[in-house]
Design goal:
single chain; about 220 residues; two-stranded antiparallel ribbon; about 20% strand; globular
Length: about 220
């Protein structure tokens, strides 16, 4: 079952409900109704307030697999964001399995992109060696009729996937900030926005400029 605002695409086999605040059908109201039906999987379009957050946690703790979205800067920002709503840290720690954060970067136009030799400053900004850059396929935008002179055609995601392990749960319980939690996750192998962006630069999918403007220096 899903509760969305709005329902953007109909999916066969999925019960989809659209939010309608005029009749009191909010995310929280929809989620509360779902719990009476005992579904296996629930998708809440967005958590916007404490009531919805608490109901999502309750659904998770009673055996339902719950998916939802939050507006945060990165994966680690989800935990303090839920606390800002008023959720208790012990409930967040025991209910969350993981967080996926996504951003969009522009894709180089395949019709006009050209090989590019990065400057020492650019390589330093990305934390790349000259050898790593030479082994990749770094390109830059040019512009042509196919892309209306922009040099880019479409967008692609860069993402972070943070698994909530026992150490992350402990940090949440201690009300640690997102930076501390992110540092632990990176030390244990989490790939950051910057890491994923660099990978796509080296594959010639996007540009150094796009990655530098859409990501921050990692902790």
């Amino acid at each position: 079952l899903t509760v969305e605002d709005p329902v953007e695409q109909r999916i066969h086999g999925i019960g989809q409900v659209q939010v309608n605040s005029k009749i009191g059908l909010t995310f929280a109201a929809g989620l509360r109704a779902f719990l009476r039906q005992d579904p296996d999987v629930i998708m809440v379009g967005e958590i916007r307030d404490l009531e919805t957050a608490e109901l999502a946690v309750q659904a998770s703790l009673t055996g339902h697999l719950v998916f939802s979205t939050l507006h945060t800067n990165d994966a680690a920002g989800a935990f303090p964001r839920l606390m800002d709503f008023g959720c208790e840290p012990f409930l967040i720690a025991t209910s969350l399995l993981g967080v996926v954060a996504q951003r969009l970067v522009r894709v180089l136009c395949p019709h006009c992109k050209a090989p590019y030799q990065a400057t020492p400053f650019e390589l330093s900004s990305l934390g790349l060696s000259a050898e790593q850059a030479a082994a990749g396929r770094i390109h830059r935008q040019i512009g042509c009729e196919q892309c209306n002179g922009k040099g880019y055609l479409g967008r692609t995601i860069i993402q972070e996937l943070m698994i909530v392990d026992e150490e992350v749960r402990s940090l949440i319980m201690q009300r640690k900030d997102g930076g501390t939690i992110k540092k632990h996750a990176v030390q244990n192998g989490m790939r950051t926005f910057r890491d994923h962006g660099i990978e796509k630069v080296l594959k010639g999918i996007t540009t150094i400029e796009e990655v530098l403007s859409n990501t921050q220096v990692d902790i």
